[in-house]
Design a protein that fits this description.
With 108 residues, the protein is an alpha/beta fold. Helices cover 34% and strands 28% of the residues. The chain has a six-stranded mixed β-sheet with strand order 1-2-3-4-5-6, covered by helices on one side. Strand 2, helix 2 and strand 3 form a beta-alpha-beta unit.
Length: 108
């Protein structure tokens, strides 16, 4: 069974940060950072922190940033959840340099 958690869009990131540590401890495989109202700089800082927490817990939990490849690259996240607004739907992961992704996994 694959476990996939999604942050709730709380805005301030406080709840997402508290949950991130718990999700890593519980071995959740993927966390989608979905904070649509958060400014890019704040989202980068939160994503960087989450990447660090996941690394501290063995790196098994992967971080996907909702629709913001710029934030994902800046924060060192594992991938991007591509929204329909971004022009595609799926998950882009395994960065090729800083310009794109190696694989897109579409949703059915």
């Amino acid at each position: 069974m694959l476990r996939y958690a999604i942050t709730g869009g709380e805005g301030a990131g406080t709840c997402a940060a508290m949950r991130a540590r718990r999700w890593a401890e519980e071995g959740v495989e993927y966390v989608q950072l979905r904070e649509k109202q958060m400014a890019a700089g704040e989202m980068v800082r939160l994503a960087e922190w989450m990447v660090g927490v996941f690394a501290e817990h063995g790196g098994k939990t992967k971080l996907l940033v909702n629709g913001r490849a710029d934030v994902a690259v800046a924060a060192g996240a594992d991938g991007v959840h591509l929204t329909s607004v971004a022009g595609a739907t799926g998950i882009c992961w395994r960065w090729q340099g800083r310009a794109g992704c190696e694989r897109v996994v579409p949703y059915a």
